[in-house]
Write a structure and sequence with these properties.
alpha+beta; Structural Genomics Hypothetical 15.5 Kd Protein In mrcA-pckA Intergenic Region, Chain A
Length: 291
């Protein structure tokens, strides 16, 4: 939020001109959006359109600083065409905003691509890696249906503490989400209000010296914190995870962020995919060597 006082130069001038001159890095579409949402006030009166302003007027602008001042958040575009966008999300950034005052990956992308762009799935705020977006309504409907029918796979890389006895396993358990505590709980048997989860892992490498392993994870279900909580539940917490991990282990490894990446998306289309048929059997991935 910023407050400005109109000087004599802009007496009886347009509000938009004053704001744009005051913030040269501001995108005009962002300004018009703020007006439509009545996020700009003149003398504490909400404005929904351009108006004349006068010397001494107080202008209050409720636009996030990264848009107002041009403080850009680096967006790493991994793949893009006319219908979809795949970006490499950084940590400490939510896919969707929790409230109007929170910057999210989606809100940032909408400033560039417009309001039609929508995420097709989510990953945790502190999980890094690939997120798939649809650029239009038709693509969104197709992709959501493909996710529902298990025709799109999401694979993750996780560095865990411990060395699993099995090099490959498909785990089944039950998860309960406590929204108030922002925690999930795992139970091995069916339980009231618990949802079934399936997590598949494969050991890629292991290190006996550090007692750690690199796992590839294939999610068969996609619940909040599923990978982190499920791996911790079987005794292999993700290194750097401050919520489900072990703090002393995290300090030993010097990891301040959880080592969990969404690194691969597979389009295993088995049925007609309309305008997205060209994605059949396509894989989009991060370069593992750079993770």
């Amino acid at each position: 939020m910023k407050k400005l006082i109109v000087n004599n130069k802009y007496d009886n001038k347009k509000l938009i001109n004053f704001v744009m001159d005051s913030f040269p890095n501001l995108n005009k579409n962002t300004l018009f959006k703020a007006l439509r949402k009545k996020d700009i006030r003149v003398n504490n009166v909400r404005m929904s359109s351009d108006c004349l302003i006068h010397n001494g007027d107080e202008i209050t602008i409720y636009i996030k600083d990264e848009f107002l001042l041009g403080k850009s958040i680096n967006i790493d575009v991994v793949y893009e065409d006319d219908n979809i966008l795949v970006v490499n999300k950084s940590s400490n950034l939510s896919v969707l905003e929790n409230n109007e005052n929170t910057t999210s990956l989606t809100s940032i992308l909408r400033e560039k691509y417009g309001s039609n762009i929508e995420p097709c799935h989510r990953i945790d705020r502190n999980t890094k890696g690939l997120v798939l977006f649809a650029k239009n309504k038709t693509s969104l409907e197709i992709l959501l249906n493909k996710f529902k029918n298990k025709e799109i796979e999401k694979h993750y890389l996780a560095k865990v503490y411990g060395i699993p006895s099995k090099t490959h396993d498909i785990l089944e358990a039950y998860l309960f989400k406590d929204s108030k505590k922002s925690l999930v709980y795992i139970y091995d048997e069916p339980k009231k209000n618990y949802s079934k989860i399936i997590t598949e892992y494969k050991v890629l490498t292991s290190d006996k010296v550090t007692n750690s392993s690199m796992l590839e994870i294939n999610l068969h279900t996609g619940k909040t914190h599923q990978i982190r909580a499920h791996l911790a539940h079987i005794g292999y917490p993700i290194i750097g995870d401050g919520k489900y991990g072990i703090n002393s282990v995290n300090k030993t490894f010097g990891y301040k962020e959880q080592y969990l990446y969404s690194y691969l998306i597979k389009f295993n289309f088995k049925t007609d995919s309309g305008i997205l048929n060209y994605l059949k059997n396509k894989e989009i991935s991060l370069d593992i060597s750079k993770i």
